[in-house]
Write a structure and sequence with these properties.
Layout lengths: L5 H9 L18 H20 L6 H13 L4 H16 L2 H9 L3 H8 L9 H19 L2
Helix pairs in contact: 1-2, 2-5, 2-7, 3-4, 5-6
């Protein structure tokens, strides 16, 4: 599976400094392995949605969202993020999914962490993404 958003991921990996903080101008943000893994997974999901025309408004995605709702902190901010996911799923808003995958800010990172969409990947697709993540992580560590 070819990921459409490889440049975004590699930019995030290259931007990581030795201390884990981002280099360059603007707001300092930490690019953790979890952040990169989530971005790779969500990028793979977006690629699958776009290339196959897959709807996100499916029973597995709705169940995943319900499970996430039960498991997360019930803060107003988390509720807003989950309500936004609910709207994205119900409206099949691919443009909003694309913004979440391609944007590297705190809100997008939290939205990727809460995403119910990873259930759209098969076990084989998930394994390929995790293998790619492992390869990139090793390459980054060798720099």
């Amino acid at each position: 599976m070819k990921l459409l958003h490889t440049r975004t991921i590699m930019r995030a990996i290259r931007a990581e400094g030795a201390d884990g903080s981002s280099r360059g101008g603007g707001q300092m943000s930490v690019v953790t392995p979890k952040t990169v893994r989530q971005q790779l997974v969500q990028s793979a999901v977006l690629d699958k949605i776009i290339t196959t025309g897959l709807s996100v408004d499916t029973e597995p995605v709705r169940r995943s969202l319900q499970t996430i709702r039960r498991q997360v902190n019930r803060s107003p901010l988390m509720e807003r993020y989950l309500d936004r996911w609910d709207m994205i799923v119900r409206t099949n808003d691919i443009d909003d999914i694309r913004r979440i995958v391609e944007t590297d800010d705190d809100t997008s990172r939290e939205m990727r962490n809460l995403s119910p969409l990873s259930v759209l990947l098969s076990d084989d697709e998930r394994r390929r993404v995790l293998t790619e993540f492992s390869t990139r992580l090793k390459a980054t560590a060798q720099r």
